[in-house]
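hey so u asked for the seq, here:
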Amino acid sequence: MLLRTASFVLLTAALLIPVAAFATDVQTGFDPVVHVPPSFWDFGPTPLPADYFGPGSDPFDGGVPADASVLPSSPSCPDALGNTDMIIERKGIALLPGFPSSDVIDVEIVELSLVSTSPISVTYNGGLDPELWNVEITLSPSLASTGTMTIRQEHADGGTFDAAILLQPHFTFRRVSDSEIRMLDGVGIYEDLIETINVAWAYSDPDLSCPSCVTNFVPGHSGANPVDFAFTGMRSQHTVRSSCTETPPIPTIPQWALIAALTVLVTLGAYMVTWRRRSVTVQTS
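ran it, C-alpha cells below
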C-alpha cells in the first residue's frame, strides 16, 4: 500500500512538471504605464530650425519637461484610462521553462499622450519678443515605434527585463496667446532609441488591480511593490510606473477568533436547548 501511494505521488508530480513550466511563460499582452517626474524631451541634440514658429523665430534647442496626459481613448486597452498615458504591447510569448531562463520578444509602443508641464519660450530676431507655446507629444501616424524586450525569469515570482524601442514622436505646438498650431512628425530626424535595463517584473497576482488587457506580466513590480523605471534615449527620458495598483487587503478574521465565536454560538445553542427543555418540563408537571 505504501509503495502504491508513493508511486501515485511521483506520477502526479511528473505529470504536473510540464504544466508548471508552461504556466511560467509570459503571454502576449499590454503594459499600460503612467509618466512621473523626471520625464522630458530635449531638442538640444537636434534644434527646431530658425523660422519654424514663424518668420524671424530663433532655433529652439531647449528642453520640454513632460507630464502625463490621460489617453482620451484606447482601442488596445479601453479600461486602462484612469491615469494611463503610454501603452506598450508585447507581441510575442516569452518562453520561460523555469528559472533561470530568458527570452526575447517584439514590442511596440501603441499609445502615447504627453504634455509639457509648462510652456516653452520661443524667441525672435536673436532673443527678442518671446512667445509661450504648449507642447503635446504623441506617436507618429506614419511609422510604428517598435523594439524588443528581453525577459528573464530569475525566481518563482518573476525576474528582470531589458527593453529597447525606437520611439517615433509627433509634436503639436500650440501658442498660448491665440492657440495657433504647429505640427511636426518626428520620423527620422527626431526619432529616439529609448532603453531600460534590469527592471524588476512580477507575475500578476490577486494583490494587484490591473486593467483587463494585462496578462501575467507586470513591469516595475517586485511582488506587489511598485518600482518606477525609466526609458532613456539621446533626446528624451520617460520615467514611468505601471498602471497596476496594489489592492487594499480584505480584512480577515483570525482563526482563533473564528473558533472562539463558534464555541460561543455552540455553547449558547446548547444552553437554549436545555432552557427550552426545562421550560417544557415545568409546564407539563
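The longest helix spans residues 255-284. Residues 250-280 form one domain.
lmk if thats what u needed
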